[in-house]
Design a protein that fits this description.
The protein is α/β, with parallel strands linked by helices and about 325 residues long. It has 2 domains: about 5-70, Transferase, Pyrimidine Nucleoside Phosphorylase, Chain C (Transferase, Pyrimidine Nucleoside Phosphorylase, Chain A, domain 3, Up-down Bundle), CATH 1.20.970; about 75-315, Pyrimidine Nucleoside Phosphorylase, Chain A, domain 2, CATH 3.40.1030. It contains 15 helices and 7 strands. The protein has a 7-stranded mixed beta sheet with strand order 3-2-1-4-5-6-7, with helices on both faces. Helix 5 crosses helix 14 and helix 14 crosses helix 15 (about 300-315). The longest helix is centred in the C-terminal third of the chain and has 17 residues, at about 280-295. The protein is globular.
């Protein structure tokens, strides 16, 4: 009964405690099974929000969620996309993901962005196909080296928990769990957060899950997207060990990521070299470099720039 886990969290001062990783895993299994009372699910999620989730709780939830999804072929890079994008313009990071895939590293994007359709509307223009299900995702990865799998297809029960935000009126830890899902069991993952405090939480949870390589940044609108005019603090793992780095700004001058553009076709035109946008170029190259570095690619900034320049020649050919 999920009520046992609610009782652990809600006994009151001096008596309540956090869930262990094993307890969190059992609780998530119950929530995903459809057998838990909705009142108990809401109570547990809101108690966790008030207390603040621990890395052990996130790791246990994520492990159970991953075990519930259909098996997918292994990819090199896991790229979750679960931000609402309130402070981000066009999703230029999609071209970064495509660039990484074009370098020979298969990428799986997965996500849900609520009412913000910028990411999904940008997929076709970004040259990334949306999978209908796990089998379709596997075929697309073989064909293109990259695919986007919607959370509602990947894990409908987790999607239902995520959408309890509409009922509860508040974000829950399910947003973090979805980012930690890594459904294809990739050795490397890149993640964006909106609230900086989650960077270390997700890094610690990843270590508990036995991940090898992870980069978490406070990215554009909460996505894994580097702002080239700002220094960025990265948290995560390298070879399974904690890693932190501060990366300097790539450009001088203050500028917002959201430049007012909403036409997703701009992604396709930039990829083909039909328009000139140095700021978008820097976003794409900087984000791809971080992803390549997460994969262990040496001189990742130079490699990313070479890949970006080479895509012009491929377009011209």
């Amino acid at each position: 009964m999920l009520g046992e886990h609610v009782r652990i969290l809600g006994r009151g001062p001096g008596r309540s405690r956090s869930l262990t990783e094993e307890e969190a895993q059992a609780a998530m299994r119950l929530m995903l099974s459809g057998e838990a009372a909705p009142e108990a699910i809401g109570a547990l999620l809101m108690l966790l929000r008030m207390k603040g989730e621990t890395a052990e709780e996130i790791a246990g939830f994520a492990r159970a969620a991953q075990q519930s999804v259909t098996a997918l072929p292994e990819v090199d890079l896991d790229w979750p996309s679960y931000a609402a994008g309130r402070t981000r313009g066009l999703p230029w990071f999609l071209l970064s993901a495509r660039l990484v895939a074009a370098s020979g590293h298969p990428v799986l994007l997965h996500g849900w962005n609520g009412p913000d359709l910028a990411v999904r509307n940008g997929l076709a223009a970004g040259g990334i196909a949306m999978a209908r299900n796990a089998d379709d995702a596997a075929a697309l990865i073989v064909r293109d080296g990259i695919a986007y799998l919607p959370l509602e297809q990947l894990c409908p029960s987790l999607f239902a928990l995520l959408n309890l935000r509409e009922v509860l009126g508040l974000r829950s830890c399910i947003n973090t769990v979805a980012r930690m899902l890594n459904p294809a069991g990739a050795a490397a993952s890149v993640q964006g957060v909106f609230h900086p405090s989650y960077r270390l939480l997700q890094a610690d949870a990843a270590q508990l899950l036995g991940w090898r390589s992870l980069t978490v940044i406070k990215g554009g609108g909460g996505e894994f997207e580097r702002h080239p005019s700002k220094s960025v603090s990265g948290f995560g793992l390298r070879q399974g060990n904690p890693w932190q780095a501060v990366l300097p700004a790539m450009q001088s001058g203050a500028r917002r990521l959201d430049d007012g553009q909403r036409d997703a076709e701009q992604l396709a035109r930039l990829w083909r070299g039909e328009i000139h946008n140095p700021f978008a170029d820097a976003i794409i190259v900087g984000t791809a470099a971080l992803a390549l570095g997460t994969l262990g690619v040496a001189q990742s900034e130079e490699v990313a720039m070479q890949l970006w320049t080479a895509r012009h020649r491929a377009t011209a050919a």
